[in-house]
Write the structure tokens for this entry.
Amino acid sequence: MLAYNTVHALTRPVMEPCRLVATELACRRGDRVLFSGLSLALEAGEALHVTGPNGTGKSSLIRILARLLRPYAGQVEHQGSLALVDERLALDEHLPLGRALAFWQNLDGCRSPGAALHMLQLEDLLEVPVRFLSTGQRKRAALARLLNGGRRIWLLDEPLNGLDSQARGAVEALLALHCGGGGIALVASHQPIALPGKQSLHLPDFAT
Amino acid sequence: MSVLATLLRRDLAALLPGSARGNSLLPLLFFLAVAMLYPFAIGPEPQLLAATGGGVIWVAALLAAILPLDRLLATDVENGFFDQWTLRGIAEEVVVAVRLLAHWLSFGPIIIAAAIPASALVGMDGETLRIVLIGLLAGTPGLAAIGIIIAAVTVGLRGGGAALSGLLMIPLAVPLLIFGAGSLSSGGEGGLALTGAISLVLVAIAPFAGGAAIRAAREG
């Protein structure tokens, strides 16, 4: 299903260096410390699978790394642009999918959105208002926004939720391409996912 | 296209009358309904109507500015738009400033235009109408700024936010009403100048107060 000649149009011609380093992170939600002493370092081309049951702080870790949440302790450093996909779609519910995505394409300066739409099989859904999309279709729409953003560091929170096996394969192929092109991917998922390098981090190991 | 133009275009598409969400004619209809019902409630005495009509136009303008508050910022925070903007290095302050402009454009000019037929309904003379129009021009940006600050502060509240924002808006709008509507009775230019001054201060602080409130809601 993947047309590799269109896929290669997505990898950036000029490689900016990128890295993501976190040292001794701790996260507190309410009066509970979810994890502490967590350090990680990802260089260009590396991927990390963050695992753990619900409520262990996977989403919080992603939001800390995205600089949206302040860590209780520790520091985050990153070089290269960040992108986030979580359960919030950030697309206008009342607009047709094509126009909702066009808003982000304009902001991100994306000239050729077609390849991403083709890979995620969204071409037939462009006229459908976002609020009528199914769970899997919404997830694919968020991934299209991610692809067309052209960012170097991907932070993905449960990207496989609601996807069928075909779409899962597409996401895994996209991640392989992204890392192959010198990008960084950090994926939080309780489901198994094939990532380049097969690095993983089990979050309950850092629970206090 | 620049970031600001892209943001403004989306905001206007969502807020302007006749847009996809469609219910933005509501402030205008609400405003005209108040002006229309007022003579029935107060009685047909021309002097009384002309003397109090300017004040009721101001109150109607204030209430019309409250109507869109509940969906002004909250839906974008809940849907993750602000997270995505922050990741792209677009500050909350910038988004709030653009949203303030769009909010004012969605009700300010319409209400200033609608004040002309409304003034006929309450039998206002030309000179009073002039002061009302200048006052609304000076005061509605301030009303929009108060509105956006309140919308930002109540962003984290699920349900109940709409009623609360209306209640919060009323005391904060008192200075604008005192000087804006007060300039009608005194006939003074001083009241109008003070209305404009309050508006300018509110417009200047609104993006910073709003941005800080949205960031604080994210930590919760």
Notes: Chain B has one domain: 2-219. The CA atoms of residues 175 and 190 of chain B lie 14 Å apart.
